[in-house]
Amino acid sequence: MESPGVDNVAFSNDDEITKNTDETKFVTSPIYTKNSATITTPQDLDAGIINGQDSDYRPTCDGQIPCKKTTPNGSAKAGGGRGGGGEESDADNLGLSDEIPKANSRLNGLRKTGELKDEANKQSISPSDKNAKLVPKKSNLVFLDKNINLLHCVSFILGSIIGTDIFFTPHGVLTNSGSIGVALLIWLICGIVCLLVAACYAELATTFRKSGGEFTFLYTAFGDRPAYVQVWMALIIGRTGGMAMMSVGFATLSSRVLYSGCDQPPDYLINLLAAATLSFLVFVNFVSVKWALLLQVIFAAIKVLAVLLLIGAGLVYIIQGRSRSLEEILGSPDDVTPSLIPVALYRGLYAYSGWQTVGFLTEEVKNPNRTIPLAMLISLPLVTAFYCLITIVYSSVLTPEQITNSNSVAIIYSRVVLGKWFWIMMPLIALSMLSSINGMIIAGSRMFVVASREQKAPEWWSMISVRWRTPLPALITLLCVSLIMIPIHKIASVLGWLYSFLWVSVGCACAVIPLMRRRQPKLQRPFTVPSAFPFICILFCVFALCMSLYLDARACGLTLAFAVSGFVVRRILEFLLLKTLWFPRLLDKITLFIQKLLFVVHQEKKTY
């Protein structure tokens, strides 16, 4: 049986191929080409494009392609358009006589192999829709795509945890423990506890499947007030203050290269360099999420390289027999003060903070049910090993007084073990700090997006750039507030006041697990932890909170004052929104202005 050609086949709405009758038929569906990206759609015809080539042809009023009419005996009869006649076919007049047989062959090949319907489904074009648009395989919808893989998650965790307690002031655990043996034991205990807490966060993230971290967890279980406090504290001091402090630290180390003969670079240079650094990282996050993720991997790799260099050089120093004696390293039992052990444990728990970052990015993680728990399982033991090894090499090379009295222990240590090559550590440490800043930028902006989406923050925070697919308004907010905080010289002390708030947030997040298991026992939980894990974590969080009150009750009071101020601001805003007419209109005008200025819209696809 002879195979029908283009002339005598037509597409129905069900994508079925039917034989043509004696009447003239019009191919209204697009022409699909196998192994080729050339597809002719009604929109192409409107532009005069046929099979990827320009043509003088303009379609009839309904945008259909006239084809030759076939008589019952198989001879071609002249036809011109719908019901028209003539000696020459319209295909010949249009110069398509060579194109139609080619299309005929391609269509028959697709029909025989059963790929025609699959090709149509892939392109998502309705043959009956005159104004159908060619939808590419990659959606044009505006939303935050899933770009984060396992390597990115590990980079976020390592980049957020490793920092001050290795490069600058590692004496928090070592000094208060009294001996290297007790210090190693404390690092192990803290590592295990934080791994349990991270496992609880992994269950919460994979259960709710939403970004936002503690905001999402607390909002789902306890309502909007605890969640609102999370956003408020992140905005006024938490995320923004941390970004400012880390930027100043990077600028201080970098400027010492230019002012190597001076004790301290001028403040204005440090502030300008910190502002430039912060602006550059936020700009990268403006332009592309993938670029920001690539920078995170690079900076985290530099940080791990710096740690490995410190550990490797120290081990070589010890093997060469140039370290302190074993008796000096181990110390005597009399050096251990039992009353200081809780302080050392408290310092160790805080040194591990940073594993929460991945919970803020859940919606953008590929296969989060596997990726997030696996990232936690890889990163926390690795960080624990780093802390233990750094403690050993520092204690073997430096005296307790050198470790305690220095604010840049890694630099002093590298002078001893690396000799004239010690200068390598300074740029490595400076660049490694950028991973912490970049992680704060990405995590903080996602919290603002989710908070706005839940109507607990300004509407424009949740909008996404149409051009770059990034949360542009949230990033700009973070940048502006952080730039204001850079000149505040005591920002590090202010951030120290938030220790108590950290443990309250973590404890409440862990309490969500037993609460939601009781409320919604049938809720799908791809990753679950034993029932005892949340209670163990809550117990250690209560311990850390009590230690915060014991060590600095004034800081806890100031933290409480910050939180209460958020409720005061909220009540004022609620009054203006509900009792006035001008304030909601003003917010609408501001939102519209920001949309036009930044070309941003709400997410057009649900990502959770």
Polypeptide structure, described:
- By secondary structure, this protein is mainly alpha-helical.
- It folds into two domains: 6-123, no CATH class; 150-601, Amino acid/polyamine transporter I, CATH 1.20.1740.
- It contains 24 helices and ten strands.
- The strands form five sheets. A two-stranded antiparallel sheet has the order 1-2. A two-stranded antiparallel ribbon has the order 3-6.
- A hairpin with a 2-residue loop joins β4 and β5 (53-54).
- The relative contact order is 0.13.
- The model is unreliable at 1-97 and 110-136 (pLDDT under 50).
Helix count equals 24
CATH superfamily of the largest domain: Amino acid/polyamine transporter I
Assign an overall shape: globular
CATH topology of the largest domain: Amino acid/polyamine transporter I
> What is the distance, rounded to the nearest whole angstrom, between the alpha carbons of the first and last residues?
53 Å
Structural class: mainly alpha
Give the neighbour order of strands across the main sheet.
Answer: 1-2
List the helices and strands and how they pair.
Layout: E1 9-11, E2 17-19, E3 26-27, H1 42-46, E4 49-50, E5 53-54, E6 65-66, E7 69-70, E8 76-77, H2 90-93, H3 99-113, H4 116-123, H5 150-161, H6 164-167, H7 171-177, H8 180-208, H9 214-222, H10 224-258, H11 267-287, H12 289-319, H13 326-330, H14 341-351, H15 368-397, H16 400-405, H17 409-417, H18 425-453, E9 464-465, H19 472-485, H20 491-496, H21 499-519, H22 532-551, H23 553-579, H24 582-598, E10 600-601
Helix pairs in contact: 5-12, 5-15, 5-18, 7-8, 7-14, 8-14, 8-15, 8-21, 8-22, 9-10, 9-21, 10-11, 10-18, 10-19, 10-23, 11-18, 11-19, 12-15, 12-17, 12-18, 14-22, 21-22, 22-23
